[in-house]
Amino acid sequence: MSGNPGLFIPGPTNMPMAVQRAMTVALEDQRSPDFPKLTLPLFQDLKKVFKTETGQAFMFPGSGTGGWESVITNTLSPGDKVVIAVFGQFSHLWADLCQRHGLDVDIIETEWGVGARPEEYAKRLEADKDKTIKAVLVCHNETATGVSSDIGAIRKVMDDLDHPALLMVDGVSSIASIDFRMDEWGVDCAVSGSQKGFMLPTGLAIVAVSQKALAAYEEAKLPRCFFDFGDMIKLNADGYFPYTPATTLFHGLRASLDILFEEGLENVYARHHRLAQAVRRGVHAWGLELCAKEPKWYSDTVSAIVVPKTIDARDVISHAFKNYQLSLGTGLTKVMGRVFRIGHLGSLNELMVLQALAGSEMALRDAGYQVELGSGVAAAQSYLLQDAAKPMMPKVTSVAAA
Q1: What is the pLDDT at residue 35?
Q2: Domains of the chain with bracketed CATH
Q3: pTM of the predicted model, to two decimals?
Q4: 3-state secondary structure (DSSP) of residue 190
Q5: Of 12, 53, 277, 364, which has fewest CB within 10 angstroms of its CB?
Q6: What are the b/e assignments for 270-295, b being 16+ CB within 10 Å?
């Protein structure tokens, strides 16, 4: 088929041409004397994205799930107690991973559509008089429901109660797209992945950990090998790795970081918020609601849109793909068939957002919902025209291509 397909799932995201070109290189010797010239600056620049001066960054071959496993196995021991709010599929999966590793997982069951409630964490931590909870786990941005949580507020709860637990954050669909402040928020372990805000193919679990987490590594007893921090630290210091790394992705990451820094991280966050607002205006113009229950939970990287009970969201997704080359995110488990998702993160601009809304309107009509064609697009256009806080847009080199 002619033309470029529309990729609006919440990851993998659209890849800028500059990133694609950067990875079109001959394969290289990962043990050559020149290799650290590529890798050592990556470690330092990743710390800028995580906003940490004292933490340490790691790059593991894998996805965000591998990042979860790395922070768990390197800081905890069998039987350790952790607490996590589950309010979507990905927070559920992280809790499941912890259970499979033999941890004592205290799950805060939370309605899908709201985020992590600091007061619920406070109840668990306040009741923990003997300080047996070793880690507090939080999903910063729950991709399944389009919900973001306030990490700073959870850190304040921990500080107010003087609780020594590690604070671990899943930032897979937030870091490099939504403001993330590792040092300011006292985050001990932060997990991301290459295929979201970093605008790369899947293949890198990007992790940053605090000095407190590195101290916990010395006492941790969970089995680990592939994800061992110690092995990485020894060789990463000189720019090398304990096994063959994803060298081609490193070149793409270099280009991605250059794009992010050229635009400016604060501008990146402002752009994501502005485009997310445009999507939300479009959704409400259709007469539909978001899965996120209140504006304070709205995610700036993905919107989960609830369809009428007479419509199956899977039909909307199918029509979008088959009829218009438009990929939308599906609903997962509890919300399967009830929501479809528009990912609005990474390399994205106004026209791309309007494309997603236009295609979604047609797919909704195909699925049986009598949306007024153009209503969502017009609402988004009106907002974008009137919004005075227009951030600097990236140069043409960072515009997405198929």
Answers
A1: 98
A2: 6-12+262-388+397-401 (3.90.1150.10), 19-246 (3.40.640.10)
A3: 0.94
A4: strand
A5: 53
A6: bbbbbbbbbbbbbbebbebebbbbee
